[in-house]
Amino acid sequence: MAEFKMRGDDLLDRRGSKLGSIRSDAIVDSRGSRLGKIRGSDILDHRGSKVASVRGTDILDKSGRRITKMDDVRKQIDGAKGGTSLAALWIFFIR
User: pLDDT tens-digit profile of 31-51?
Assistant: First the structure.
């Protein structure tokens, strides 16, 4: 059983509490504060600095080193679909 679950654009923990969500190209926490942004295959923090990027099935840090694979992220989140947006939620809330 996965620790986290997707319901629409929201990321929930195992109790069903909302951790964060995707709004357009922004990643926001449960209070609505913007934590990051998605620009193409890059994941940026709230200041616009690159945090990570997605290349194929790999999630890379800002230096280009592999953090994990998308398959591993999908195993941790039930109902997960998507690429860069899913990776961004994983980076900001699970990692």
Answer: 999 999 999 999 999 999 999
- How remote is the C-alpha of 91 from its chain's centroid? 5
Give the number of other Cβ atoms within 10 Å of residue 15's Cβ. 5
Task: Dig out the tokens for 38 from the structure.
Answer: 């998605």
* 15 three-class SS: coil
Length of the chain: 95
**Distance between CA atoms of 21 and 49, rounded to whole angstroms?**
20
User: Whole-prediction pTM value?
Assistant: 0.91
Q: Report yes or no: 12 and 4 within 8 Å, Cβ to Cβ.
A: yes
